[in-house]
Protein backbone atom coordinates (compact mmCIF):
# COMPACT_ATOMS: atom_id res chain seq x y z
CA UNK A 1 0.00 0.00 0.00
CA UNK A 2 1.37 3.39 -0.98
CA UNK A 3 1.12 5.69 2.03
CA UNK A 4 2.35 9.25 2.26
CA UNK A 5 4.65 9.64 5.29
CA UNK A 6 3.21 11.77 8.07
CA UNK A 7 4.70 13.05 11.26
CA UNK A 8 3.32 11.25 14.34
CA UNK A 9 3.99 11.25 18.08
CA UNK A 10 5.98 8.03 17.59
CA UNK A 11 8.01 9.71 14.87
CA UNK A 12 9.17 12.69 16.97
CA UNK A 13 10.48 10.56 19.86
CA UNK A 14 13.57 9.62 17.84
CA UNK A 15 14.35 13.20 16.90
CA UNK A 16 16.87 15.54 18.48
CA UNK A 17 15.64 17.23 21.70
CA UNK A 18 13.33 14.25 22.40
CA UNK A 19 16.08 11.78 23.32
CA UNK A 20 15.48 12.24 27.06
CA UNK A 21 11.71 12.81 26.74
CA UNK A 22 9.32 10.36 28.37
CA UNK A 23 5.67 9.49 27.65
CA UNK A 24 3.87 9.32 30.99
CA UNK A 25 0.25 9.03 29.74
CA UNK A 26 -1.76 8.21 26.60
CA UNK A 27 0.61 5.50 25.37
CA UNK A 28 -2.07 4.11 23.04
CA UNK A 29 -2.33 7.43 21.20
CA UNK A 30 1.22 7.64 19.86
CA UNK A 31 0.01 7.09 16.27
CA UNK A 32 -1.71 10.50 16.36
CA UNK A 33 -0.75 12.69 13.41
CA UNK A 34 0.99 16.04 13.97
CA UNK A 35 0.16 18.82 11.52
CA UNK A 36 1.62 21.83 13.38
CA UNK A 37 3.35 22.84 16.62
CA UNK A 38 2.16 25.48 19.11
CA UNK A 39 3.70 26.90 22.24
CA UNK A 40 0.87 27.50 24.72
CA UNK A 41 1.07 29.28 28.06
CA UNK A 42 -2.58 30.27 28.50
CA UNK A 43 -5.59 28.47 29.97
CA UNK A 44 -8.14 29.03 27.20
CA UNK A 45 -7.10 27.58 23.87
CA UNK A 46 -10.25 25.88 22.57
CA UNK A 47 -11.08 28.50 19.93
CA UNK A 48 -7.49 28.78 18.66
CA UNK A 49 -6.87 25.20 17.52
CA UNK A 50 -7.88 23.42 14.30
CA UNK A 51 -6.83 19.87 15.25
CA UNK A 52 -3.66 17.71 15.17
CA UNK A 53 -1.46 20.36 16.83
CA UNK A 54 1.41 19.30 19.13
CA UNK A 55 1.40 21.59 22.17
CA UNK A 56 4.63 22.70 23.91
CA UNK A 57 4.31 24.25 27.39
CA UNK A 58 6.16 24.98 30.62
CA UNK A 59 2.87 24.84 32.55
CA UNK A 60 3.33 28.31 34.03
CA UNK A 61 -0.33 29.20 33.38
CA UNK A 62 -1.67 26.42 35.61
CA UNK A 63 1.14 26.17 38.17
CA UNK A 64 -0.36 24.93 41.47
CA UNK A 65 -3.82 24.91 39.85
CA UNK A 66 -4.66 21.24 39.18
CA UNK A 67 -8.31 21.97 38.25
CA UNK A 68 -7.18 24.47 35.61
CA UNK A 69 -4.61 21.96 34.34
CA UNK A 70 -7.34 19.28 33.99
CA UNK A 71 -9.60 21.75 32.16
CA UNK A 72 -6.75 22.62 29.81
CA UNK A 73 -6.14 18.97 28.88
CA UNK A 74 -9.88 18.51 28.35
CA UNK A 75 -9.91 21.42 25.90
CA UNK A 76 -6.99 19.92 23.97
CA UNK A 77 -8.72 16.54 23.74
CA UNK A 78 -11.94 18.17 22.50
CA UNK A 79 -9.97 20.07 19.86
CA UNK A 80 -8.34 16.82 18.69
CA UNK A 81 -4.83 18.05 19.49
CA UNK A 82 -2.08 15.51 18.77
CA UNK A 83 -0.57 15.66 22.28
CA UNK A 84 1.18 17.90 24.79
CA UNK A 85 4.88 18.21 25.75
CA UNK A 86 5.52 19.60 29.24
CA UNK A 87 8.73 20.91 30.74
CA UNK A 88 9.11 19.61 34.32
CA UNK A 89 11.22 21.40 36.89
CA UNK A 90 10.97 25.01 35.82
CA UNK A 91 7.41 25.88 36.89
CA UNK A 92 5.85 22.53 37.75
CA UNK A 93 7.26 19.39 39.33
CA UNK A 94 4.52 16.79 38.99
CA UNK A 95 1.61 15.86 36.71
CA UNK A 96 -1.65 15.39 38.70
CA UNK A 97 -3.08 11.87 38.76
CA UNK A 98 -6.44 13.13 37.46
CA UNK A 99 -4.73 14.47 34.36
CA UNK A 100 -2.83 11.22 33.75
CA UNK A 101 -6.00 9.20 34.21
CA UNK A 102 -7.92 11.37 31.73
CA UNK A 103 -5.08 11.22 29.16
CA UNK A 104 -4.91 7.41 29.39
CA UNK A 105 -8.66 7.11 29.03
CA UNK A 106 -8.76 9.34 25.93
CA UNK A 107 -5.47 8.02 24.50
CA UNK A 108 -4.04 11.54 24.59
CA UNK A 109 -0.20 11.48 24.75
CA UNK A 110 1.52 13.52 27.48
CA UNK A 111 5.29 13.84 26.98
CA UNK A 112 7.51 15.31 29.68
CA UNK A 113 10.98 16.85 29.53
CA UNK A 114 12.76 16.48 32.86
CA UNK A 115 15.05 19.40 32.07
CA UNK A 116 14.87 22.73 30.32
CA UNK A 117 14.57 22.37 26.51
CA UNK A 118 14.75 24.93 23.65
CA UNK A 119 11.14 25.22 22.42
CA UNK A 120 12.27 27.44 19.54
CA UNK A 121 14.60 24.75 18.18
CA UNK A 122 11.95 22.02 18.62
CA UNK A 123 9.39 24.14 16.76
CA UNK A 124 11.84 24.96 13.96
CA UNK A 125 12.87 21.32 13.54
CA UNK A 126 9.33 19.94 13.45
CA UNK A 127 7.97 22.70 11.22
CA UNK A 128 10.81 22.13 8.74
CA UNK A 129 9.91 18.46 8.68
CA UNK A 130 6.20 19.24 8.19
CA UNK A 131 6.89 21.70 5.37
CA UNK A 132 9.11 19.17 3.60
CA UNK A 133 6.35 16.58 3.94
CA UNK A 134 3.83 19.01 2.44
CA UNK A 135 6.16 19.64 -0.49
CA UNK A 136 6.59 15.89 -1.07
CA UNK A 137 2.83 15.39 -0.85
CA UNK A 138 2.16 18.11 -3.44
CA UNK A 139 4.80 16.61 -5.75
CA UNK A 140 3.34 13.12 -5.47
CA UNK A 141 -0.17 14.49 -5.95
CA UNK A 142 0.90 16.35 -9.10
CA UNK A 143 2.56 13.21 -10.44
CA UNK A 144 -0.61 11.21 -9.80
CA UNK A 145 -2.75 13.84 -11.54
CA UNK A 146 -0.54 13.85 -14.62
CA UNK A 147 -0.54 10.04 -14.79
CA UNK A 148 -4.31 9.95 -14.37
CA UNK A 149 -4.83 12.53 -17.13
CA UNK A 150 -2.74 10.40 -19.49
CA UNK A 151 -4.85 7.39 -18.59
CA UNK A 152 -8.03 9.32 -19.41
CA UNK A 153 -6.94 9.59 -23.05
CA UNK A 154 -7.06 5.82 -23.52
CA UNK A 155 -9.58 4.34 -21.08
CA UNK A 156 -12.98 3.15 -22.27
CA UNK A 157 -14.67 2.52 -18.92
CA UNK A 158 -14.89 4.30 -15.57
CA UNK A 159 -13.74 0.99 -14.01
CA UNK A 160 -10.25 1.64 -15.40
CA UNK A 161 -10.10 4.80 -13.29
CA UNK A 162 -11.21 2.87 -10.20
CA UNK A 163 -8.48 0.29 -10.85
CA UNK A 164 -5.89 3.05 -11.26
CA UNK A 165 -6.90 4.56 -7.90
CA UNK A 166 -6.67 1.17 -6.19
CA UNK A 167 -3.19 0.54 -7.61
CA UNK A 168 -2.05 3.96 -6.39
CA UNK A 169 -3.27 3.69 -2.79
CA UNK A 170 -3.79 -0.04 -2.28
CA UNK A 171 -7.15 0.54 -0.58
CA UNK A 172 -10.64 -0.80 -1.25
CA UNK A 173 -12.38 1.37 -3.86
CA UNK A 174 -16.17 1.54 -3.98
CA UNK A 175 -18.11 3.36 -6.70
CA UNK A 176 -21.87 3.65 -7.06
CA UNK A 177 -24.23 5.52 -9.33
CA UNK A 178 -27.17 7.17 -7.56
CA UNK A 179 -29.66 4.53 -6.36
CA UNK A 180 -27.68 1.65 -7.90
CA UNK A 181 -25.65 -1.20 -6.43
CA UNK A 182 -21.99 -0.31 -5.75
CA UNK A 183 -19.00 -1.59 -7.72
CA UNK A 184 -16.05 -2.88 -5.62
CA UNK A 185 -12.44 -2.74 -6.86
CA UNK A 186 -11.04 -5.24 -6.21
CA UNK A 187 -14.14 -7.46 -5.91
CA UNK A 188 -14.98 -8.54 -2.36
CA UNK A 189 -17.23 -11.17 -0.81
CA UNK A 190 -20.56 -10.24 0.78
CA UNK A 191 -19.22 -10.34 4.35
CA UNK A 192 -16.61 -7.67 3.48
CA UNK A 193 -19.27 -5.61 1.72
CA UNK A 194 -21.29 -5.73 4.94
CA UNK A 195 -18.31 -4.33 6.90
CA UNK A 196 -18.05 -1.46 4.45
CA UNK A 197 -21.77 -0.71 4.74
CA UNK A 198 -21.44 -0.69 8.53
CA UNK A 199 -18.48 1.70 8.36
CA UNK A 200 -20.44 3.93 5.98
CA UNK A 201 -23.41 4.05 8.35
CA UNK A 202 -21.08 5.07 11.16
CA UNK A 203 -19.51 7.74 8.95
CA UNK A 204 -22.94 9.18 8.14
CA UNK A 205 -23.84 9.37 11.83
CA UNK A 206 -20.46 10.65 13.04
CA UNK A 207 -18.54 12.14 10.08
CA UNK A 208 -15.35 12.85 12.02
CA UNK A 209 -15.12 9.60 13.94
CA UNK A 210 -14.34 7.00 11.27
CA UNK A 211 -10.92 7.72 9.77
CA UNK A 212 -10.88 4.46 7.79
CA UNK A 213 -13.37 5.63 5.15
CA UNK A 214 -13.55 8.71 2.93
CA UNK A 215 -16.37 9.46 0.49
CA UNK A 216 -16.49 11.97 -2.35
CA UNK A 217 -19.74 12.75 -4.19
CA UNK A 218 -19.56 13.23 -7.97
CA UNK A 219 -21.75 16.02 -9.32
CA UNK A 220 -23.06 16.39 -12.86
CA UNK A 221 -25.51 19.15 -13.83
CA UNK A 222 -25.62 20.45 -10.24
CA UNK A 223 -26.88 17.07 -8.99
CA UNK A 224 -25.16 14.25 -7.14
CA UNK A 225 -24.77 11.68 -9.91
CA UNK A 226 -22.50 9.11 -8.26
CA UNK A 227 -20.31 8.49 -5.22
CA UNK A 228 -16.67 7.41 -4.89
CA UNK A 229 -15.35 5.91 -1.65
CA UNK A 230 -12.00 4.58 -0.42
CA UNK A 231 -11.92 2.27 2.57
CA UNK A 232 -9.09 0.73 4.60
CA UNK A 233 -10.22 -1.15 7.71
CA UNK A 234 -6.63 -1.59 8.91
CA UNK A 235 -5.20 1.93 8.66
CA UNK A 236 -6.45 5.47 9.08
CA UNK A 237 -6.74 7.49 5.88
CA UNK A 238 -5.02 10.86 5.87
CA UNK A 239 -4.96 14.15 4.01
CA UNK A 240 -2.95 12.72 1.12
CA UNK A 241 -5.53 10.01 0.44
CA UNK A 242 -8.27 12.65 0.67
CA UNK A 243 -6.59 14.80 -1.99
CA UNK A 244 -5.98 11.79 -4.24
CA UNK A 245 -9.66 10.88 -3.91
CA UNK A 246 -10.69 14.44 -4.78
CA UNK A 247 -8.55 14.48 -7.95
CA UNK A 248 -9.91 11.09 -8.97
CA UNK A 249 -13.51 12.23 -8.44
CA UNK A 250 -12.92 15.20 -10.73
CA UNK A 251 -11.42 12.95 -13.40
CA UNK A 252 -14.35 10.55 -13.07
CA UNK A 253 -16.84 13.40 -13.47
CA UNK A 254 -15.12 14.51 -16.69
CA UNK A 255 -15.05 10.95 -18.04
CA UNK A 256 -18.72 10.32 -17.21
CA UNK A 257 -19.77 13.63 -18.76
CA UNK A 258 -17.83 12.86 -21.94
CA UNK A 259 -19.39 9.38 -22.07
CA UNK A 260 -22.89 10.81 -21.62
CA UNK A 261 -22.20 13.40 -24.30
CA UNK A 262 -21.16 10.72 -26.81
CA UNK A 263 -24.21 8.62 -25.95
CA UNK A 264 -26.50 11.61 -26.41
CA UNK A 265 -24.94 12.28 -29.81
CA UNK A 266 -25.72 8.69 -30.80
CA UNK A 267 -29.33 9.17 -29.76
CA UNK A 268 -29.67 11.90 -32.38
CA UNK A 269 -29.55 9.13 -34.97
CA UNK A 270 -32.60 7.57 -33.31
CA UNK A 271 -34.70 10.71 -33.76
CA UNK A 272 -36.26 9.42 -37.01
CA UNK A 273 -37.77 6.48 -35.15
CA UNK A 274 -39.05 8.81 -32.41
CA UNK A 275 -40.52 11.20 -35.01
CA UNK A 276 -42.49 8.30 -36.49
CA UNK A 277 -43.68 7.38 -32.98
CA UNK A 278 -44.89 10.95 -32.46
CA UNK A 279 -46.67 10.81 -35.82
CA UNK A 280 -48.59 7.70 -34.73
CA UNK A 281 -46.84 5.44 -37.25
CA UNK A 282 -45.57 2.85 -34.73
CA UNK A 283 -47.62 -0.10 -33.54
CA UNK A 284 -47.52 -1.34 -29.98
CA UNK A 285 -45.44 -4.39 -30.97
CA UNK A 286 -42.88 -2.14 -32.71
CA UNK A 287 -42.63 0.09 -29.64
CA UNK A 288 -42.05 -2.81 -27.25
CA UNK A 289 -39.44 -4.30 -29.59
CA UNK A 290 -37.68 -0.93 -29.81
CA UNK A 291 -37.60 -0.60 -26.02
CA UNK A 292 -36.25 -4.15 -25.68
CA UNK A 293 -33.43 -3.39 -28.12
CA UNK A 294 -32.47 -0.45 -25.91
CA UNK A 295 -32.62 -2.76 -22.87
CA UNK A 296 -35.45 -0.69 -21.40
CA UNK A 297 -38.19 -2.49 -19.51
CA UNK A 298 -41.58 -1.42 -20.86
CA UNK A 299 -43.40 -1.75 -17.54
CA UNK A 300 -44.46 1.89 -17.64
CA UNK A 301 -47.71 3.21 -16.21
CA UNK A 302 -48.37 5.32 -19.28
CA UNK A 303 -46.74 8.15 -21.18
CA UNK A 304 -46.98 11.87 -21.84
CA UNK A 305 -45.30 14.24 -24.29
CA UNK A 306 -43.57 17.40 -23.08
CA UNK A 307 -42.46 20.16 -25.48
CA UNK A 308 -39.90 22.70 -24.35
CA UNK A 309 -39.63 25.61 -26.76
CA UNK A 310 -36.52 27.81 -26.61
CA UNK A 311 -36.56 31.01 -28.62
CA UNK A 312 -32.77 30.93 -28.84
CA UNK A 313 -32.91 27.96 -31.21
CA UNK A 314 -34.59 30.07 -33.84
CA UNK A 315 -32.06 32.89 -33.49
CA UNK A 316 -28.87 30.93 -32.95
CA UNK A 317 -28.81 27.70 -34.91
CA UNK A 318 -25.22 26.88 -33.94
CA UNK A 319 -26.13 26.27 -30.28
CA UNK A 320 -25.22 22.68 -29.39
CA UNK A 321 -28.29 21.27 -27.66
CA UNK A 322 -26.55 18.12 -26.42
CA UNK A 323 -25.82 19.49 -22.96
CA UNK A 324 -29.36 20.82 -22.64
CA UNK A 325 -30.74 17.39 -23.45
CA UNK A 326 -28.29 15.68 -21.10
CA UNK A 327 -29.30 17.87 -18.19
CA UNK A 328 -33.03 17.70 -18.90
CA UNK A 329 -32.87 13.91 -19.29
CA UNK A 330 -31.24 13.77 -15.86
CA UNK A 331 -34.06 15.87 -14.37
CA UNK A 332 -36.69 13.53 -15.82
CA UNK A 333 -34.91 10.41 -14.57
CA UNK A 334 -34.75 11.76 -11.04
CA UNK A 335 -38.53 12.19 -11.07
CA UNK A 336 -39.26 8.71 -12.43
CA UNK A 337 -39.55 9.29 -16.19
CA UNK A 338 -37.71 7.54 -19.03
CA UNK A 339 -37.14 10.24 -21.64
CA UNK A 340 -36.88 9.93 -25.44
CA UNK A 341 -35.81 13.18 -27.05
CA UNK A 342 -36.02 14.70 -30.49
CA UNK A 343 -35.74 18.22 -31.90
CA UNK A 344 -38.13 20.03 -34.22
CA UNK A 345 -37.56 23.61 -35.34
CA UNK A 346 -37.04 25.54 -32.10
CA UNK A 347 -38.45 22.83 -29.83
CA UNK A 348 -37.14 19.94 -27.80
CA UNK A 349 -39.76 17.19 -27.66
CA UNK A 350 -39.73 14.58 -24.90
CA UNK A 351 -41.68 11.33 -24.90
CA UNK A 352 -41.84 10.47 -21.21
CA UNK A 353 -42.55 6.93 -20.01
CA UNK A 354 -43.86 7.08 -16.46
CA UNK A 355 -42.11 4.58 -14.17
CA UNK A 356 -43.91 5.55 -10.98
CA UNK A 357 -47.48 6.02 -9.77
CA UNK A 358 -49.91 7.66 -12.19
CA UNK A 359 -51.33 9.70 -9.29
CA UNK A 360 -48.15 11.77 -8.93
CA UNK A 361 -47.13 12.31 -12.56
CA UNK A 362 -48.27 15.95 -12.74
CA UNK A 363 -46.60 17.02 -9.49
CA UNK A 364 -43.36 15.33 -10.52
CA UNK A 365 -43.42 16.94 -13.96
CA UNK A 366 -44.05 20.34 -12.34
CA UNK A 367 -40.81 19.88 -10.38
CA UNK A 368 -38.93 19.08 -13.59
CA UNK A 369 -40.30 22.10 -15.49
CA UNK A 370 -39.40 24.46 -12.63
CA UNK A 371 -35.88 23.06 -12.55
CA UNK A 372 -35.57 23.35 -16.32
CA UNK A 373 -36.50 27.03 -16.17
CA UNK A 374 -34.03 27.58 -13.31
CA UNK A 375 -31.27 25.61 -15.02
CA UNK A 376 -27.84 27.26 -15.13
CA UNK A 377 -27.59 26.29 -18.81
CA UNK A 378 -30.74 28.28 -19.54
CA UNK A 379 -29.59 31.24 -17.45
CA UNK A 380 -26.11 31.28 -18.98
CA UNK A 381 -27.63 31.62 -22.46
CA UNK A 382 -29.79 34.50 -21.21
CA UNK A 383 -32.96 33.03 -22.66
CA UNK A 384 -35.58 35.70 -22.18
CA UNK A 385 -38.44 33.42 -23.17
CA UNK A 386 -39.07 29.70 -23.02
CA UNK A 387 -42.40 27.89 -23.20
CA UNK A 388 -43.39 24.46 -21.99
CA UNK A 389 -46.40 22.46 -23.13
CA UNK A 390 -47.42 19.09 -21.68
CA UNK A 391 -49.97 16.96 -23.51
CA UNK A 392 -52.63 14.72 -22.08
CA UNK A 393 -51.60 11.56 -20.28
CA UNK A 394 -52.08 8.32 -22.30
CA UNK A 395 -51.91 4.80 -20.92
CA UNK A 396 -51.41 3.17 -24.32
CA UNK A 397 -47.92 3.85 -25.73
CA UNK A 398 -49.37 3.53 -29.22
CA UNK A 399 -51.37 6.73 -28.59
CA UNK A 400 -48.36 8.96 -27.86
CA UNK A 401 -49.22 10.98 -30.98
CA UNK A 402 -52.42 12.18 -29.25
CA UNK A 403 -50.40 13.51 -26.33
CA UNK A 404 -48.00 15.16 -28.80
CA UNK A 405 -50.80 17.03 -30.60
CA UNK A 406 -52.21 18.17 -27.24
CA UNK A 407 -48.76 19.43 -26.19
CA UNK A 408 -48.53 21.41 -29.45
CA UNK A 409 -51.97 22.87 -28.80
CA UNK A 410 -50.84 23.87 -25.28
CA UNK A 411 -47.84 25.72 -26.73
CA UNK A 412 -50.10 27.54 -29.22
CA UNK A 413 -52.54 28.59 -26.47
CA UNK A 414 -49.71 29.82 -24.25
CA UNK A 415 -48.34 31.89 -27.12
CA UNK A 416 -51.76 33.47 -27.71
CA UNK A 417 -52.98 34.07 -24.15
CA UNK A 418 -51.03 36.31 -21.82
CA UNK A 419 -51.06 35.18 -18.22
CA UNK A 420 -51.82 31.56 -19.07
CA UNK A 421 -50.03 30.01 -16.12
CA UNK A 422 -50.55 26.28 -16.70
CA UNK A 423 -48.40 24.22 -19.07
CA UNK A 424 -50.65 21.15 -18.72
CA UNK A 425 -53.14 20.60 -21.54
CA UNK A 426 -55.58 19.09 -19.03
CA UNK A 427 -55.68 22.36 -17.05
CA UNK A 428 -56.50 24.73 -19.93
CA UNK A 429 -60.22 23.87 -19.93
CA UNK A 430 -62.08 26.78 -21.62
CA UNK A 431 -59.07 27.81 -23.69
CA UNK A 432 -59.16 24.39 -25.36
CA UNK A 433 -62.84 24.90 -26.19
CA UNK A 434 -62.14 28.40 -27.54
CA UNK A 435 -59.37 27.07 -29.78
CA UNK A 436 -61.73 24.42 -31.19
CA UNK A 437 -64.59 26.89 -31.67
CA UNK A 438 -62.25 29.33 -33.39
CA UNK A 439 -61.61 26.77 -36.13
CA UNK A 440 -65.29 26.24 -36.96
CA UNK A 441 -67.24 29.41 -36.12
CA UNK A 442 -66.78 33.17 -36.16
CA UNK A 443 -66.40 34.06 -32.50
CA UNK A 444 -66.04 37.77 -33.26
CA UNK A 445 -69.79 38.06 -33.87
CA UNK A 446 -70.61 36.55 -30.47
CA UNK A 447 -67.94 38.62 -28.70
CA UNK A 448 -69.40 41.78 -30.24
CA UNK A 449 -72.91 40.81 -29.16
CA UNK A 450 -71.92 40.49 -25.51
CA UNK A 451 -68.95 42.83 -25.05
CA UNK A 452 -69.11 45.46 -27.79
CA UNK A 453 -70.64 48.24 -25.58
CA UNK A 454 -67.96 47.72 -22.92
CA UNK A 455 -65.08 47.57 -25.41
CA UNK A 456 -66.24 50.75 -27.21
CA UNK A 457 -66.70 52.60 -23.93
CA UNK A 458 -63.11 51.72 -22.88
CA UNK A 459 -61.79 52.86 -26.28
CA UNK A 460 -63.57 56.21 -26.03
CA UNK A 461 -63.11 57.00 -22.35
CA UNK A 462 -60.25 54.75 -21.16
CA UNK A 463 -62.76 53.47 -18.64
CA UNK A 464 -61.15 50.12 -17.74
CA UNK A 465 -64.59 48.56 -17.61
CA UNK A 466 -63.56 45.30 -19.31
CA UNK A 467 -60.78 44.78 -16.78
CA UNK A 468 -63.20 45.57 -13.94
CA UNK A 469 -65.76 43.13 -15.34
CA UNK A 470 -63.18 40.34 -15.62
CA UNK A 471 -61.92 40.79 -12.04
CA UNK A 472 -65.46 41.19 -10.64
CA UNK A 473 -66.53 37.89 -12.22
CA UNK A 474 -63.38 36.11 -11.04
CA UNK A 475 -64.12 37.31 -7.49
CA UNK A 476 -67.67 35.86 -7.72
CA UNK A 477 -69.26 39.28 -7.31
CA UNK A 478 -67.36 40.24 -4.13
CA UNK A 479 -67.04 44.04 -4.21
CA UNK A 480 -64.51 44.16 -1.39
CA UNK A 481 -62.17 41.64 -3.02
CA UNK A 482 -62.58 43.24 -6.45
CA UNK A 483 -61.66 46.70 -5.18
CA UNK A 484 -58.63 45.24 -3.45
CA UNK A 485 -57.39 43.48 -6.61
CA UNK A 486 -57.98 46.55 -8.79
CA UNK A 487 -56.37 48.89 -6.23
CA UNK A 488 -59.36 51.26 -6.33
CA UNK A 489 -61.61 52.70 -3.62
CA UNK A 490 -65.15 51.33 -3.19
CA UNK A 491 -66.78 54.43 -4.65
CA UNK A 492 -64.82 54.09 -7.90
CA UNK A 493 -65.81 50.44 -8.15
CA UNK A 494 -69.48 51.21 -7.51
CA UNK A 495 -69.40 53.79 -10.31
CA UNK A 496 -67.88 51.26 -12.75
CA UNK A 497 -70.36 48.53 -11.82
CA UNK A 498 -73.23 50.95 -12.33
CA UNK A 499 -71.91 51.75 -15.79
CA UNK A 500 -71.57 48.01 -16.58
CA UNK A 501 -75.25 47.51 -15.65
CA UNK A 502 -76.20 50.27 -18.08
CA UNK A 503 -74.16 48.72 -20.89
CA UNK A 504 -74.80 45.01 -20.27
CA UNK A 505 -78.11 45.05 -18.46
CA UNK A 506 -78.73 44.68 -14.76
CA UNK A 507 -79.01 40.90 -15.24
CA UNK A 508 -75.39 40.42 -16.31
CA UNK A 509 -74.66 38.43 -13.10
CA UNK A 510 -77.48 35.96 -13.75
CA UNK A 511 -75.91 32.45 -14.10
CA UNK A 512 -76.56 31.85 -17.79
CA UNK A 513 -75.61 35.32 -18.99
CA UNK A 514 -72.65 35.51 -16.62
CA UNK A 515 -71.23 32.22 -17.99
CA UNK A 516 -71.59 33.47 -21.56
CA UNK A 517 -69.87 36.79 -20.70
CA UNK A 518 -66.94 35.00 -18.99
CA UNK A 519 -66.52 32.78 -22.04
CA UNK A 520 -66.55 35.79 -24.36
CA UNK A 521 -63.98 37.66 -22.24
CA UNK A 522 -61.58 34.71 -22.55
CA UNK A 523 -62.33 34.43 -26.28
CA UNK A 524 -61.64 38.15 -26.72
CA UNK A 525 -58.24 37.81 -24.99
CA UNK A 526 -57.41 34.74 -27.09
CA UNK A 527 -58.26 36.39 -30.41
CA UNK A 528 -56.68 39.75 -29.51
CA UNK A 529 -53.38 38.13 -28.55
CA UNK A 530 -53.44 36.00 -31.68
CA UNK A 531 -53.93 39.11 -33.83
CA UNK A 532 -51.07 40.92 -32.11
CA UNK A 533 -48.73 37.97 -32.66
CA UNK A 534 -49.72 37.77 -36.33
CA UNK A 535 -49.09 41.51 -36.81
CA UNK A 536 -45.73 41.26 -35.06
CA UNK A 537 -44.72 38.30 -37.25
CA UNK A 538 -45.71 40.14 -40.41
CA UNK A 539 -43.74 43.23 -39.36
CA UNK A 540 -40.60 41.17 -38.64
CA UNK A 541 -40.79 39.37 -41.96
From TrEMBL:
One Pfam family, short name: GGDEF_2
Residue ranges annotated for the Purine catabolism PurC-like domain, each copy included: 12-129
Domain called PucR C-terminal helix-turn-helix: residue spans: 465-519
Top-rank lineage group of the source organism: Bacteria
InterPro entries for the chain: CdaR-like_regulators, CdaR_GGDEF, PucR_C-HTH_dom, PucR_C-HTH_sf, PucR_dom
Span of domain CdaR GGDEF-like: 280-413
PANTHER family linked to this entry: CARBOHYDRATE DIACID REGULATOR
Homology family: Belongs to the CdaR family.
Name used for this protein in its record: PucR family transcriptional regulator
Amino acid sequence: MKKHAQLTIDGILDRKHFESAEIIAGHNGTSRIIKWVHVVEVTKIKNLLKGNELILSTGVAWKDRPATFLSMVNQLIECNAAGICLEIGTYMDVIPEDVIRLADEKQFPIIVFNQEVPFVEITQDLHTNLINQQYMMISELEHYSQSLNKQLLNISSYKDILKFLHEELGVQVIFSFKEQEPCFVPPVVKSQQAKWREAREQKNEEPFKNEHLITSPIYLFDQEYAELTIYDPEHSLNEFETLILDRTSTALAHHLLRHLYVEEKKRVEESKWIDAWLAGERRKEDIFEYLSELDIQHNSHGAVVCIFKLDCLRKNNEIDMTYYKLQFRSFFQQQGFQAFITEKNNMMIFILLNKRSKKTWKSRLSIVVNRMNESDLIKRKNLARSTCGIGKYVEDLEKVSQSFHCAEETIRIQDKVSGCSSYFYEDLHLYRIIAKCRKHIDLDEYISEYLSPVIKYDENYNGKLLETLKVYLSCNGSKKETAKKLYVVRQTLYHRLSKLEQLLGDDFMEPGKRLAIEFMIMSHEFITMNSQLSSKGAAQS
